[in-house]
Amino acid sequence: MADVEIYTKEFCGFCARAKKLLRAKNVGFKEIPIDMEPRRRPEMIERAGGKTTVPQIFIGGEHVGGCDELVALDRAGKLDALLEA
């Protein structure tokens, strides 16, 4: 199973939706709450190629985007293969 990291904020509906999808697939993930750890925000922006919104999701060290991109991967049948890599 690939390592999954997700940068989040506490009251973010998109973050909650992404985490719900990952949990539904029984995928463990490392959550990095940038509102509780603001020093991690520049790290997120750099890793995400300048993106500043949350969530920012990384699977196997590769940036996959935010919630919309994660859902799109799942709908296209590509998320499971990414998670298994």
From TrEMBL:
Residues 4-64 form the Glutaredoxin domain. One of its GO terms (molecular function) is glutathione disulfide oxidoreductase activity. Keywords: Cytoplasm, Disulfide bond, Electron transport, Redox-active center, Transport. One of its GO terms (cellular component) is cytoplasm. InterPro entries: Glutaredoxin, Glutaredoxin_subgr, GRX_bact, Thioredoxin-like_sf. GO terms for biological process: cell redox homeostasis; cellular response to oxidative stress. Has a glutathione-disulfide oxidoreductase activity in the presence of NADPH and glutathione reductase. Reduces low molecular weight disulfides and proteins. Belongs to the glutaredoxin family. PANTHER family: GLUTAREDOXIN 2, GLUTAREDOXIN-1-RELATED. This is Glutaredoxin. It comes from Rhodothalassium salexigens DSM 2132. The lineage of its organism: Bacteria, Pseudomonadati, Pseudomonadota, Alphaproteobacteria, Rhodothalassiales.
